[in-house]
Specification:
34% helix
């Protein structure tokens, strides 16, 4: 770097105390050297920092549990489970609090809730096929047509006959489902223990078993109304008081298939428990081919008359006056989620036993919206 005297004209005050051009030139040289030294120092420091950043970026990634849990909701939920709300920061409390819950309940983070739903489906396959919605009110109402207009043939000048559609209103209210889990204080203190997975598994089992039964057989009193308890579904009888007919039992299922309107049959599934499926698997057609077809590729469903089979543990076994098989489009059943999984931490009730109790609750409803999309089989003569 160089500088010229002319560039600093007016910037340096010349005094009449004996300053000479040589002295001025020396001062400018010192000034130039100082600027050069400082620029080199800045460049060296910047280069060192860039080298360190580049080296850090080139290192192999090491993933730990703490690094994966970057979202504030997950961190807050983990702290709430392990230490309680007393040790949470205000921002963490705000991220989990349910605004309408005066008891201080806390919502689980989305990832935890998704894992719970995935496990719930092991017990409640209806959630995979039914229409599931989330509502923000105490109930939801749907208009449902019960009768339609009718056109008639008339002569050119004959009187016309009027007709009107008829409607009714279906209301689905969510009901509360709750349980609790007791966890050892030592497990809560052990950060290496996968507590979140353990809670998800326990809660999924508790909620799933109860919810599954309600979606199939619930009577609508304090719980969802199940598909098999709803009215308006067409019934087909086996023709035998306690079982299927001894000869050509598959004809009963073929009759069920064709009782359903074609648009609904194309979207329908067979629903039965594992015992009933074991019986149906033994049936063959006139050519000796089994009626139940095994999947030909991974992930494909087992089929009966070309439609998937859904195993539901809560369906009836084959017995007198039972309803062991349902055939229909499960989109005609509506599941209404009102409040997702909410948890309350109780460190006091079991403190003398070294345990913490977690109260879990959710609000969910269900009811049949389109009975014309289903046919059910009754074991009767």
């Amino acid at each position: 770097m160089t500088a010229h005297v002319r560039a600093f004209e007016g910037a340096i005050e010349l005094k009449d105390d004996g300053d000479t051009p040589d002295a001025i030139a020396k001062a400018l040289a010192n000034f130039n050297q100082t600027v050069d030294d400082r620029l080199k120092a800045v460049e060296t420091k910047t280069a060192d920092r860039l080298d360190k950043v580049e080296a850090k970026l080139n290192r192999p990634a090491v993933h730990t549990k703490g690094q994966d849990e970057t979202d504030v909701e997950t961190k807050a939920f983990n702290r709430f489970v392990r230490a309680g709300v007393e040790r949470m920061q205000p921002d963490e409390v705000k991220s989990l609090r349910v605004a309408s819950d005066a008891a201080g309940g806390f919502l689980a983070p989305e990832a935890f809730g998704n894992e719970l739903i995935k496990l719930l489906r092991e017990f409640s396959p209806i959630r995979n096929y039914a229409r599931v919605i989330t509502v923000g009110a105490s109930s939801i109402k749907y208009p449902r047509r019960t009768a339609s207009t009718a056109a008639t043939w008339v002569d050119e000048t004959a009187d016309r006959t009027g007709s009107e559609p008829a409607f009714e209103q279906l209301e689905i209210a969510p009901y509360e489902l709750a349980t609790f889990v007791d966890v050892s204080q030592q497990l809560l203190e052990d950060n290496a223990y996968n507590l979140e997975s353990e809670l998800a598994s326990d809660l999924a089992e508790s909620f799933g078993i109860t919810e599954s039964l309600a979606f199939v057989k619930g009577n609508g009193t304090g719980k969802p109304r199940g598909i098999m308890a709803a009215t308006g579904i067409t019934e087909v009888k086996t023709g035998n008081a306690a079982a299927f007919p001894a000869s050509n039992p598959a004809d009963v299922l073929i009759g069920m298939f064709h009782k359903l309107a074609n648009p609904h049959a194309q979207n329908a599934v067979w629903m039965m428990n594992r015992n009933t499926l074991g019986t149906v698997r033994t049936w063959k057609d006139a050519n000796g081919r089994y009626l139940v077809m095994e999947p030909i590729s991974n992930g494909a469903p087992t089929t009966l008359l070309g439609r998937p089979i859904v195993e539901a543990v809560d369906m009836d076994d084959i017995a007198a006056n039972a309803f062991p098989i349902l055939f229909g489009d499960l989109q005609g059943y509506r599941i209404v989620d009102r409040v997702s999984l909410s948890m309350l931490r109780d460190p006091y009730s079991l403190a003398t036993k070294g345990q913490v109790r977690f109260h879990a609750r959710k609000r969910v409803g269900g009811d049949l919206t389109h009975p014309d999309r289903f046919v059910k089989l009754k074991v009767a003569a």
